[in-house]
Design goal:
Oligomer: single chain
CATH topology of one domain: Arc Repressor Mutant, subunit A
Number of strands: 3
Helix content: over 70%
Structural class: mainly alpha
Strand order of the largest sheet: 1-2-3
CATH class of one domain: Mainly Alpha
Largest sheet: 3 strands, antiparallel
Length: about 500
């Protein structure tokens, strides 16, 4: 038993999977564990979990198949089905993973074995988050959280909830889940859990578009992962650094981090390899002929469609639309824009489009016009972001400034009537008469109605002599036009748009 517990310590505390395997093999060769079927199965499954985490799914699957045929007892069968489902999940065969997870749950319906149930709920949460089914994933993670007494599982589940909520642009709820992981971390002083919490923090910062602070957090994750030599987290942290560098428009750093990630990535794991390819394609978008990237990104989409990976598919479709647009194929671009918007709005992938709007507003506005969507509906995550303490004040100001500038003309009615033109308040001295300002207010409030000259004259100039009506009306309209025209900045070389509309 000492070797078994040493293996658990190596896995969960130090994150050293190689040492864990050595200890578990020693435990399995012990005469006591060999004679006790339940103990033998417990140690074997602990070893299988490590092999799965290492990407050695074939080795794990072969051993589990033998156990499935030899094992007796319903609970043991359920455990084996759970781990076979886990392997199918690692192999990106989510349909088979769901099948085995549900077979295990069927066995446990009459059982009080809540520990295994919570593991299965967590697996179902993982399958659904991979499928991009965020609502279902949240349901299963909450079932896990409500069932388990394990602090470790609560920490992992809350970390996953933080990821889900941040991708849905529910940043305040994501922060609440993150804070729960930080509280739990006080009782689980382990490098592997410290990394897990930092990765959840990174996701919130990244999805909120706070790339500078996300980069700093990714650097922390990278240092911790290198220290414990966990190749999965090393690879992920370099990919995080690459993503942040791309959005900070530092292409040289993005390429450098991508090259470092490639040294640690497990090419045997299909999804890990494909998502790495997607990051690489996105990094190259502004540095190479976009048309040459179309076949590569189409291959990524085919893989994601096969595995029902809707979230990553929505991102890939958006960048395929961008590739076609930059290649001059606006009709093809429009097709994929509609596909990605329809999918993302159905599933609630709000944070990605919020970030893309801020990153490249010109293309995003083209996308919205093509789809007939109101671009302002994609700005609503800004409210949730402002309520989140994790997000820096500097970034909140930047987001608020961006949102303000998205409005050509904005009117405030409370605290005194005022107008903002592209985020800048129109000075009071621009108005020759206050009535002209009130007319503009009226026009905006009644913007869905047809308004005649006579109607406006009746309301604002009821005492005007008949012979002066036309002149008074045209002076008012002229003043409104001149005020708005004076607030329109002149065109410069720097203000010329990159895209055609």
């Amino acid at each position: 038993m000492l070797n078994y517990y040493s293996g658990l310590l190596a896995k969960y505390h130090y994150g050293n999977l190689e040492d864990a395997i050595i200890f578990f093999d020693k435990a399995l060769n012990n005469p006591v564990s060999s004679a006790d079927e339940d103990l033998n199965l417990t140690i074997t499954l602990a070893k299988m979990e490590v092999l799965i985490n290492q990407g050695k799914t074939d080795d794990a699957y072969n051993e589990l198949e033998m156990l499935e045929n030899k094992s007796s007892g319903a609970i043991n069968k359920a455990k084996i089905y759970y781990f076979i489902g886990h392997i199918h999940f690692q192999r990106n065969d989510n349909n088979s993973a769901l099948n085995y997870a549900n077979k295990a749950l069927d066995i446990l319906n009459e059982s009080e074995n809540n520990t295994l149930k919570e593991d299965i709920y967590n697996l179902l949460g993982n399958i659904n988050i991979t499928n991009g089914e965020f609502i279902k994933a949240i349901h299963y993670y909450e079932l896990t959280q409500n069932t388990t007494q394990s602090l470790q599982k609560k920490l992992v589940v809350n970390g996953n909830l933080a990821v889900l909520y941040s991708r849905s642009a529910k940043f305040r709820k994501a922060e609440e889940s993150l804070n729960r992981t930080k509280e739990l971390l006080k009782f689980l002083n382990s490098p592997i859990f410290e990394i897990a919490v930092k990765m959840s923090e990174y996701t919130i910062l990244f999805e909120a578009g706070d790339y500078k602070n996300a980069l700093n957090t990714a650097e922390t994750v990278n240092r911790q992962a290198l220290k414990i030599k966990n190749y999965l987290y090393i690879s992920l942290s370099y990919q995080f650094l690459s993503e942040c560098s791309y959005y900070l428009k530092n292409s040289e750093a993005a390429d450098s981090y991508t090259a470092l990630a490639l040294k640690y990535i497990n090419r045997d794991t299909g999804s890990e390899s494909v998502l790495f390819d997607l990051i690489t394609i996105i990094n190259r978008l502004n540095k190479t002929n976009a048309e040459s990237l179309v076949p590569k990104i189409e291959d990524v989409i085919k893989f994601l469609e096969t595995n029902n990976s809707n979230y990553d598919k929505a991102i890939a479709l958006y960048y395929l639309a961008k590739c076609y647009f930059l290649s001059g194929s606006e009709a093809a671009s429009a097709k994929y824009i509609n596909l990605t918007f329809n999918l993302a709005r159905e599933k609630g992938y709000d944070a990605f489009f919020f970030r893309e709007f801020m990153f490249d507003p010109e293309f995003f506005e083209f996308a919205c016009k093509t789809s007939g969507l109101n671009k302002f509906e994609f700005l609503t995550p800004g409210d949730s972001l402002n309520e989140t303490e994790l997000i820096s004040t500097e970034h909140k100001k930047s987001v608020n400034h961006f949102i303000e500038n998205c409005y050509v003309l904005k009117m405030y009615l409370f605290g005194g009537l005022k107008f903002l033109y592209r985020g800048k308040e129109i000075p009071e001295n621009k108005w020759i008469r206050k009535k002209r300002k009130l007319i503009l207010c009226y026009l905006l409030l009644e913007n869905n109605k047809r308004l005649s000259k006579d109607r406006i004259v009746d309301i604002f100039f009821p005492d005007t002599p008949l012979e002066s009506i036309d002149n008074t009306f045209h002076q008012a309209v002229s003043n409104i036009r001149s005020v708005l025209k004076s607030e329109t900045p002149g065109k410069t070389k720097e203000s010329k748009k990159k895209y055609r509309f």
